[in-house]
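Let us begin with a simple case.
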Amino acid sequence: MTAHVPASAPASASASASASALASAPVLETPRLVLRGHRAADFDDSLSLWSDPEVTRYIGGKPSTGEEVWTRILRYIGHWAALGFGFWHVRDRATDRFVGEVGIVDFRRDFAFSFDGAPEAGWVLAPWSHGRGYATEAMSAVLAWAGAAHPRTVCIIDPPNLASRRVAAKLGYREIGQAEYKTTPVIVFERQA
């Protein structure tokens, strides 16, 4: 299917529409990881991640269904097409094993705390990979990629999630407030490049 822009639309609108329709995640590599855009074929990896109670304990509190995971993958792909940034699918370079999902997003959360247009950073890793420094390594690559285009990012973390709070600190995030998201208390963090 080809996108059509009305003849009366300015040339820049046509170029912008074409560019956003083709936008996809660049491949990022670290010493141990490969970060790439999500594909429909990643459904099983994402389902194994998001249906794991250990993973979702601090993120929504309940495992996701297949329908919810499919919507999540489409949302990830859509972020790249609409905004030029989003989440990456992360794999171990040596084994090609699925590690998790990381990136920066704009979820437009129904949230009392304003992010003032800053993208929200996030990292979610498979339990087998916890404690190996993968989250810090992957997010360091993401934040370096974001660089000047997104010098300020924010993140929200469930207060008891000490491991994620340690990752945030290693990445240079600092607490700027506390709020409630969907009846759950969260800590809001900010990072300036």
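The second case is a distinct protein. As before, the sequence precedes its structure tokens.
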Amino acid sequence: MTPDQIRRLFRASAIALGLPLVAGTAAAHAAETNVAENAVSFTQLDANKDGYIDAGEASVVPKLAELFAKADANKDSKLSPDEFAAVASMLK
């Protein structure tokens, strides 16, 4: 299981149990750093598997969140695989 999958599982479990999520915990920071430092695929970021990356999903990678509005060429508030591909090289 990848760090990203573990983070998603933890977050989903905490939400299902009604537990507050503490942004900035050592584990969350380590997972976010690991995702940001490694190449991230469209599939990894599309957490809800709807075929697009929304702003919430993009926030996992700070650089992608920063570039989101620019990458969203058709301004539909989500990134298609083609829109993501156009900025993917900037995320490494």
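The chain has a mean pLDDT of 77. Residues 3-17 form the longest helix (15 residues).
Keep these points in mind for the review questions at the end of the chapter.
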